[in-house]
Fold this sequence. Notes:
- This protein is mainly alpha-helical and 284 residues long.
- The protein has one domain.
- The protein has helices at residues 3-27, 32-62, 64-90, 108-129, 138-161, 166-190, 196-226, 230-245, 258-276.
- Helix 3 packs antiparallel against helix 4 (108-129).
- The radius of gyration is 19 Å and the shape is globular.
Amino acid sequence: MPTWLEAGLWGLAGASSLVIEAALATLVRLPVRIITGIMAFGCGVLISAIAYDLIMEGFRSAGIQPIILGAIAGSLVYTIANWLVSRGGGHHRKRSGHQQKNTNEGGGLAIAVGSLLDGIPESIVLGVGLLGGSGVSVPMFAAIFLSNLPEGLSSAAGMLKAGRSRTYIFALWGGIALASGLAALLGAALLGEASPAVLATVNAVAAGALLTMVADTMIPEAVEGERGRTGFLVVIGLLVAFALSHGMGEDTAGGADQSAISNDAVRMIGWGVHMYGPSAAFHS
């Protein structure tokens, strides 16, 4: 299978979680705190992938300059584009409550464009990641898939409350999933002969855009609904993604056994989640 076609399929698979969670939102009415808790966890997963699978790997292959220039450029481009989308009514596109504009107030196109804006950078990353010849990055794919789950769930719930139809919701997320697959395909096809410095710069641009998206659109939703638990869930999400990434065969100091490290990490994370559940300190 050609690399560009494989990249397109992986991009489509990563974005498919948007459609899955949109379907769940239309079938089951979940409490806001569950939706925002999943959102907080997804923030941590995505932050880990950005830091270790995009920025750190780019630094190792091409040095610091492409990372700084690319990340700043990606952040600026996303900030400007998000500002334009917000002016058109797409500011609350990830909100699960009643913040989104009602259908009679417009904003549908802005929500669609904004959601597409959020999904394209991560899909390009998947496509570019295949160019190294070692296959898709499992941690990066897992991060994208898991972070898309709360996006689709939260945004679809908000759209339903704003009066948008199920047809609109499925058409929107289905279209974004296809566009994400196309973005991954184009990323692999156009950058097949690119140098390590160019690839590192592209990944840094995506990293800057994704981190800005997390801060501007995902964390506000998580903080508003979680009432104090957001930080803990972000940390758990980051640790899960980090454990996954560093259990995939990378060398460790002292030659420590990878499976033992991963198992220890999972046990520690499980202990943290167990302590989190009954803790009266977190109760509202």
